[in-house]
Amino acid sequence: MRRITFMLALLIGLMLSGCASGPDSLFKAYVGVGAPKHYEVWVEHLELEASGIRHWCMPVGSVACCWKGPSGPRGKGGTAQPFPDYIGIRWFSFAEQKFYERVFSLPEGLEEKMREHATYTTSLGTFSRPRDMLTIGLAPGGQMVLWINNQIGNEIEVGRMQANEVEGDASNYEVGTRNYLEEHSDYIEKHGVPKEGW
Fold first, then answer.
1. Phi, psi of 107 (to 5 degrees)
2. What angle is formed at CA 71 by the lines to CA 183 and CA 146, rounded to 5 degrees?
3. pTM of the complete model beyond 0.70
4. With DSSP H G I counted as helix, E B as strand and the rest as coil, what are the percentages for the chain, rounded to 5?
5. I want to staple 46 with a disulfide (CB 3.0 to 4.6 A). Which of 8, 58, 76, 131 is the partner?
6. Are 155 and 149 in contact (CB under 8 A)?
7. Cβ atoms of residues 80 and 148 within 8 Å
8. Is 55 in a helix, a strand, or coil?
9. pLDDT digits (tens, 9 = 90+) for 128-185
10. Which strand (E) or helix (H) includes residue 113?
11. d(CA 22, CA 184)
12. pLDDT digits 0-9 by tens, 50-98
């Protein structure tokens, strides 16, 4: 009888713990990469690591928007599950003809902060859900900014850092650079390539 009672208690405990962990396991963060308008980049590598669980690469390629304003921050990327501890990124800046790279740990408690619900309003009404989007902003000079949000307009800046300039062969991007300059050379000549203030 004791054995049956123990087994029944164990079974109920497992069922309750499964129910309790269900919503947590449904949390999926989106990691994207954005850049300021007119300062397009090519992301060569975006690697994520959940320590001891998984290491994976996310293809990104060309990034031409979106830093801030009515279209940002947001960017190209994908779902990050499980939530990563570390991110490594390497990119080529068309405006500067330079390569940058940075490996960084995400801010402590970021996943919990992203799980917190935040309200947002659309034409259909006001809603609440987690800030499940993490955008990595890449600006000239190797400036990096991290934002979280659930909709454009309610972003929170959660990190700011400097990437390292690294060696690379800019001739690999000869065609991309030519296309970039055809579209943006007038803007660059007028406004330059600011390395600060992002």
1. -55, 140
2. 100
3. yes
4. 30, 40, 30
5. 58
6. yes
7. no
8. strand
9. 999 999 999 999 999 999 999 999 889 999 999 999 999 999 999 999 999 999 999 9
10. helix 110-115
11. 48
12. 999 999 999 999 999 999 888 889 999 999 999 999 999 999 999 999 9
Residue 137 · residue 65 · CB < 8 Å: no
Q: pLDDT over 70 for what percent of the chain?
A: 87
Question: For residue 105, what are the CA distances in angstroms to 91, 113, 131, 140, 160?
Answer: 18, 15, 19, 21, 12
Q: Is 89 exposed, middle or buried (0-12, 13-18, 19+ CB in 10 A)?
A: buried
Structure-token pair, residue 124: 């259909």
**DSSP secondary-structure letter at 176?**
H
Q: List, in order, residues 6 or more apart from 195 with CB less than 8 Å away.
A: 140, 141, 143
Token duo for residue 29: 């963060």
Cβ atoms 48, 87 nearer than 8 A: yes
Q: How far apart are CA 79 and CA 120, in angstroms?
A: 21
DSSP 16: H
* Torsion sign over Cα 65, 68, 72, 77: positive
What are the structure tokens assigned to 167, written together?
């060696």
